[in-house]
Amino acid sequence: MAKQQFEFVRLVGEERRVGPSLQSVSKHWKSQKECFLFVSPHDDDVAIGGALMILAALKEKVPVHIAIVTDGAAGYCSLKEKDTIAAIRRAETYQSFRTLGVKKANVHWLDFPDCQLANFVGRRPVVAGDPAVFEGHTGMQNAFTKLLRDIRPTQVFLPTDSDLHPDHRITYSEMMISLYHASGAIWPELGKKLPVVPYVHEMAVYCDFPTPPKLRLLASEAMFEKKLKSILDFKSQKQIEAQVKTIREAGPMEFFRPVEWKLYDPRTFYNMFEERSNHTSRKFL
After folding, report:
1. What is the Cβ-side half-sphere exposure of residue 213, based on CA atoms within 13 angstroms?
2. Global confidence as pTM
3. Does 1.10.260.40 match the CATH number of domain 6-278?
4. Mean pLDDT in residue range 169-192
5. Sequence spans of domains, the chain
6. What is the CB neighbour count within 10 angstroms for residue 242?
7. d(CA 19, CA 275)
């Protein structure tokens, strides 16, 4: 890594693609249209799981947006910060992404209540006091669909749904169905539909992937130090130093797992139930 800041390795079947940029190992790259959206259930999740990818994207001049789902109000580590922790964490978040080079205007807060995402699954008309109100509705699917249509990302990065934290799992499932909504004709008041479903990568934050990742990113020590600093910018999160210790010991690397969209087609399974001699005999109109 002495001569370059990043190295990407993507595994596609038996193929091993290696290059200095994500573009160099991606056959789905959209050139000047590329735009990345990182979805962070809590404000520090993306720095932990994807800071090196953010740095690499910015080096390639790809616009980077961050969507922070919750308000951080449940993340206090001392009683005297209980009523002010949301404001403290918001300031720390801006500093963290400033460390990485992300524009403040590209950090999007949805402000759903921390640790209460189960109350905002789906979409419903607003009542007084609701967060994330768009076009008279609230709910994660409403907010995510609006965000996706506004930003129009080509690639989306979010924590894997195998994480133990319910906020991570709910964010994952709501974003995945919202990708489908945003690419369809439903709820036209939320904006123009996306031309295609964005390419999706999972990040590992605290828990392992459900199946092995297919993309590895190695970074230089200088880029790695930026990542570590961006995590440590969350000074109010006392437990984060232990996380930084683990990341530092592992070294300057991140892994990502692609998510494949597979819509149901009955023809996929037909031959499984045929006698072997007739496996190729069925023809479909």
Report:
1. 22
2. 0.93
3. no
4. 97
5. 6-278
6. 9
7. 45
The number of beta carbons lying within 10 Å of the beta carbon of residue 48 is 24
| Token pair of 35 as six digits | 């735009």
The single-letter DSSP state of residue 161 is: T
Helix segments in the chain, DSSP class H: 45-59, 85-100, 140-151, 166-182, 221-232, 240-250
Residue 183 contacts residue 196 (beta carbons within 8 Å): yes
Whether 60 shows a pLDDT value over 60: the answer reads yes
Task: Please provide residue 18's backbone torsions phi and psi, each rounded to the nearest 5 degrees.
Answer: -130, 135
- Other C-beta atoms closer than 10 Å to the C-beta of 256 total 24
Q: How many residues does the chain have?
A: 285
pLDDT value of residue 243: 83
SS3 24: helix
Which pairing describes strands 124-125 and 137-138: parallel, antiparallel, or unpaired? antiparallel
Helix 221-232, helix 85-100: angle, nearest 10 = 170
Instruction: Please report the pLDDT score of residue 113 as a whole number.
Output: 97
pLDDT at 8: 98
Task: Find tokens 């440590």 and name the residue.
Answer: 232
Structure tokens at 170: 């709910």
Name the DSSP class of 197: P
Instruction: Please give the radius of gyration of the chain, using alpha carbons only, rounded to the nearest integer.
Output: 20
- Give the integer Cα–Cα distance in Å for 156 and 140: 16
219, β-bridge pairs: 6
